[in-house]
Design brief:
Length: 145
């Protein structure tokens, strides 16, 4: 026997997401970060500054997408727990710059809690042709003030 309960309701006072943080993609370029002899790694430096007048979130998420010319997307999701005014991130994506053409880095930031918000930024760059020597991986160095 199968049964289902369906509950219908309304959401009152559903506030729109606010633009809560300035996102600056300060740098995105290719290097040989893993010393494998191939310049097929991408270094992305990001600065995120909470807008004045916005209550600092206690929890936020950052979705960082690297899109290759072929349309392949590498996605890194970062969850930040704790308040900050400015967050600095240096993301290394290994063995990902493997095609000729224009690459795109897109950052989507979401704040959770009372001041729910969404902010976004995008950056294009063109590394040289080449092929990687390993599986795509990522590492993150982050600090806040």
């Amino acid at each position: 026997m199968f049964s289902a309960i369906i509950i219908f309701g309304t959401v009152q006072n559903a506030a729109a997401l606010v633009d809560w943080v300035d996102i600056s993609i300060d740098h995105a370029y290719y290097y040989d970060l893993d010393d494998d002899g191939a310049s097929d790694d991408v270094l992305i430096n990001i600065t995120c500054s909470v807008h004045p007048g916005i209550k600092n979130p206690q929890r936020s998420e950052y979705y960082i997408a690297l899109t290759l010319p072929s349309g392949v997307v590498y996605l890194v999701i970062i969850e930040v727990i704790g308040k900050y005014n400015t967050l600095f991130m240096s993301l290394s994506m290994y063995d990902t710059a493997t095609e000729p053409g224009w690459y795109n880095v897109k950052v989507d930031a979401f704040s959770m809690g009372i001041n729910r918000g969404h902010s976004t930024a995008s950056y294009d760059f063109d590394p040289p042709t080449g092929q990687g020597t390993g599986q795509p991986t990522a590492s993150l160095l982050a600090w806040a003030s």
